[in-house]
Amino acid sequence: MNANIKDVAREAGVSIATVSRFINQNGYVAATTAEKIENAISKLRYHPKKELRKLSNTKVIGIIFPSIKNPLFSELFTYLEINLKKKGYNCTLFIDNDENHKLEDYISLILRP
């Protein structure tokens, strides 16, 4: 059974709206809350299908960071997103959480309908 946004919210101990804000990067989510959501998404292997479908017809660059705990990663992603958007690209951020995924895992995630 595939996890859904309700499962992520329950696992992280937050509301569905908070998970939605985090996933869509639409509004403020505290760093500690973001970490709980990130961990829940990773644990449940949740993939927001609606967002992936929207990305399928666009130019997308997937960026993989080992975590978002280091403020440098946040600043770097923001810089990349702003500058790549000017060139017509959308960015998708993947957090590995030191699970040592293979590159093929991320490629299949990006290409999944």
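the 2nd protein, sequnce then structure:
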Amino acid sequence: MRSKALSFLKYTFLILCSFVSIFPFYWMIAGATNTSNQIAEGKLSIGSNLLKNLSDLLEGYNIPLIMWNSLKVSLITAVLSLIVTSMAAFGFEKFTTRKSEIIYSILLLFMMIPFATLVIPLFKMMAGLDLINQHLAIILPSISNIFLIFFFRQSFKSFPDDIIDSGRVEGAGNYKIFFKLVFPMMKSAYAAAAIYSFMNAWNSYLLPLIILQTEDKYTMTLLISGLSSASYVANYGVQMVAITIATMPTLVLFLIMQKSFVAGMTGSLKA
């Protein structure tokens, strides 16, 4: 009887947590179909104003271009970040020296520095390189992600050294071993890192805010921020439509790669 009561409480708690997690997403979808006044009044049901909100958004902003900007920045950042951070992590783990451990420890300490403190130095660096209002100025600082170096190194700890040694016996160099042996067996870890890197780049706001200065270079985060301050009377319906559109790519990516994401987070190998 006691076990049944505990199970009931456990599942009740899990259901409540699931509801709390899903409700904001539902409210976003419902808000995209209602007028601004209906949203302000707290209406939670699906409305009939979706096409009007979408039309107003498309008339005021070049959504396809802005979506393309976000996708371009996020995809390039994710691909380059996976290559650079995984190779760095592989070197730290499989070619360990005293100096490399000191460097790795310093890198981990850098994770404690708030990104806001780096904004002014990054702006000056990009201005010196004449990259202001260029997407490259957002991509370059995001490639070397310290968390991903840490994540990949933890994943490489479970990679068998015997496979690396066998590759060396066959005459393969370090780069060939990495791309021909290590990469194919660590697909789950790469999938998890790809989701994290893509979402991190897609949701980036502070750096694009100070770097991008014209609307044709804007990303979705800047568009949503601009919608909230575009006029004295906020159009919540249009904002909700923009937020919904901005959420779709990351949602689709996660749904497609969720199994690999879970496997990667648990550190499993896939031959």
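The mean pLDDT is 86. The CA atoms of residues 98 and 104 lie 10 Å apart.
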